[in-house]
Amino acid sequence: MDTKYKLTAEEIKRWNDWKHIESNMEKVDGAIFDPHGARHNVKAAPSPKGVPPEMQTFKPM
Question: Looking at the record, which segments are called Disordered (predicted)?
């Protein structure tokens, strides 16, 4: 990383937003989760095997 490079205001804001997201991660059963939900769109996939391929909605209890 070039230590002489000065971040722009937009880059500083993005970096601070990312640090906030990362600081909220929770470890559950050995895996790390974002309590605010998925960061990217979720879609059905062929793996893991045995999981239904159709889209499912999960709501907090």
Answer: 41-61
